Amino acid sequence: MKKLASLVLALMLVLSVCSFAGAEDDVIKLTWAMGTGSTAPKDNAMVLEELNKISREKIGVEVDIQYFTNDQLQNSIQSGEVFDMYFTCSWYNNFNVAVSNKLFANIWPHLQEWTPDLYATMPENVWELAKSSDGGLYAIPVKKDYCPENFIVYPADKAAELGFEIPANIEAWDDLTDFLVAWKETLPENEYPVMVGGNPPGMETSFDFIDRTVQIGVLFGTTEVVTVYEDPKVMERYHTMNKWYNLGLINPDAAQLTEDAIDDKHQHLNFVQAWDGYDYSVGYGYNCEMTRYSGPFLSTDGVQGSMNAFSITLENDLERFEAAMKYQELVNTDKLYRDTLRYGVQGYHWNYVTEEQNPACAGGVLKTQVGNDNYGPWAFSQGSYSLASIAVSQAQVDGTAKAPVMNQWDLYFANCENAEVSAISGFTFDSSKWKANYAEITAIKDQYYKSYASGTINIDDVYDEMMEKMNAAGLQDIIEDAQAQLDAYLASK
Questions:
Q1: What is the pTM of this model?
Q2: Residue 273 main-chain phi, psi, to 5 deg
Q3: φ, ψ at 194 (rounded to 5°)
Q4: 8 Å CB contact between 239 and 233
Q5: Beta strands of 139-239 (E only): which ranges?
Q6: Does the pLDDT of residue 488 top 90, yes or no?
Q7: Contact criterion met (CB below 8 Å) for 208 and 202
Q8: Most CB atoms closer than 10 Å: which of 74, 223, 236, 427?
């Protein structure tokens, strides 16, 4: 009897091991190339382990998320390395260029069949704006502030101390000059109220871009293709930066730095894309307020401002293609998965706030110190930003800081309904025949951009010289081609 029992037990163990091995073999393993600044999340491996527990159980998928700067990713692509999924937008892994080079798969034929819950997360007009001119959908837009609104964040206590009431909206950046001059007078010699690395993010917002690489588009509401320098609002920002620089309000080394080099914990103006109700006090560590200077606008450029695409190689393997689509559906519909992807491992990197701790913050995420130190990926790039729980600070939980606006996304999407809509919505430019010109124009732009965008020099002093070089490199020819494509697109609608 003992011998029989031993044989049965041994057989059960063998079957168990075989069953486990079979289950492991059934798991589809995917890769996702994700963007990052100079420093990738330290605890990525730990978080991936937790994420894959969820995705294995729910959809039979594991994903290896790898982080790249834009330069690193471009080197990877050029070397022939292929990932199943890619983060893409206009300024990282350029979407239009990738589509023109046929690197991304068209997901439109499969979206509603394979991932109906993903399709239901956003209104039809957003999906239509995400499409390219050929009617194909080559990436999933991140559900976030796709009707861009741009703000300047400032330290509220400093403004109050100096007797300034900053309005909720400003017409021009120059409206803040008096406040900044007064603020500078309170600072030590080597501290500045405007700290930038290269350029403030969002300087060119309000221009309806067709292609940011070569800085072309239309003035919002029009259909004539021009350069960004034709937008008077953008030029006002360039000129104001130079005024601030000459007044000693900007760090002198601005043109030599990157944005990653700026310490957000040190009080200074921050230039952000955000929405009413969002509070930067949590991230910056001091009491913040915002003033809007642009938006909301609804355009293809805005909707395509943050997306995730699929390698065209998946079109030859529909099983993996469907698995990748279902994985992105999980990212965009499963709240715990989304919170883990954004904040890390629950109980280690963060915890949910309970009703007992503070009803006004209940359901929010309170990060731990190790969470702040070791895991901070680009939350805007991963998937539905609005699905993730609101981050709160310990001071907000304790009631010593103002409570967060917990329904801020509901307010935002309601406000989106009033956004000004682009006159070229749905148009994307096929730039594939201009690769060499793009490289040359990019090099010319890089020669000047950080200097005038940081205010170090007056753009008027270099404009003619810069444009002469860009036009010699084919910029006007590109504009003519973009205009012809746009006219044809509008005529076909």
A1: 0.74
A2: -100, 120
A3: -120, 110
A4: no
A5: 140-141, 150-155, 207-211, 216-219, 226-227
A6: yes
A7: no
A8: 427
